[in-house]
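FIELD: query
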Amino acid sequence: MERYDELTRKYAALPNQGGVKDGFRYQPEAWRLFPRYHVVEAILVEIERLDPDLLPELAGLVDALVAAADGAHSPLTQPAGNEVEAEAMAAERRLFRSTVNGWLAGGDLRVEPLAYRRVLTPAEAAARQDQLRRWWGLVDRCWYPLLAEPIPPDVLVLAEAAMWDEQGIAHVRRELREMGGRRVMELREDGTDYLVDVDIVAPRYAGVEGVWSDDTLSWIAYASHEGTVTFGGHLAVALHTTWADLDRWRSSPD
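FIELD: result
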C-alpha cells in the first residue's frame, strides 16, 4: 500500500501528469511509472487472497507471497503496450521478490499487526450477494436510492460527504461494535470483494460502488456513484438514534 502511494505521488508530480502536449501520449518517464503501480495494485489483491488467520511460518509465507506476486495480473497489466512498460512491470516484480526474500536473511522480523482484510473467494461473494438479494432486495449490487421503487421510510440516505468526515466513519464503526460486529463483507462494483475488521470498515464511494453487511444480515450499507450512502436495518436505527447532527448529512432528493 505504501509503495502504491509512493508511485502514484511520483506520477502525479510529472509535468502534465505524464502526458505530452497533444494529450494522447505518455512521456517516457510516465511509461516507467504507471505500469509499476498497476502491478503493485494487482499484487496487493493477489496477496490479500491469503487468509491472515491461517498464514504459514515465515519461510512458507515468503514463498506464498512471491508466488502470488509473480501470478498477479489485472486488465491493466496485460498485455504490455511496449518494451518500456513490460520492463517496468518486470522490475517492480523483481523489487517485490527481493524485498520479501530479504526478510528471511534479515534475522528476527518484528512487525505491527494489521487489521484483518481478505479478498473473498468467488463462491463467498456470490453467496453473500444472493443473501442480500433475498433479504434486502439488492439488484446487481445496487440498492436505494438507485432502485426504481420509492425509498422505504426506515431507510436512511445520507450525502456521501458524511462518510468522508471522520466523525461519520467513527459513528458507523462504533455502532457496529455495539451490535457485536467483528468482521464485515464488502461487495465492490469492480468484483474484488473483501472481508474486513469492523475497525477499518469505510462505507463510502471510492471509485467503485460498494455494499456492506455482516453474517447477521441485520443491517446493510450501500455507497453509490450518485453521491449517496444508504443504511438499512439495525444500523440505520442506531445511527438515527445516536448521531446528534445527523440531519445535516441527509441527502436531498433532486
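FIELD: remark
The chain has a mean pLDDT of 92.
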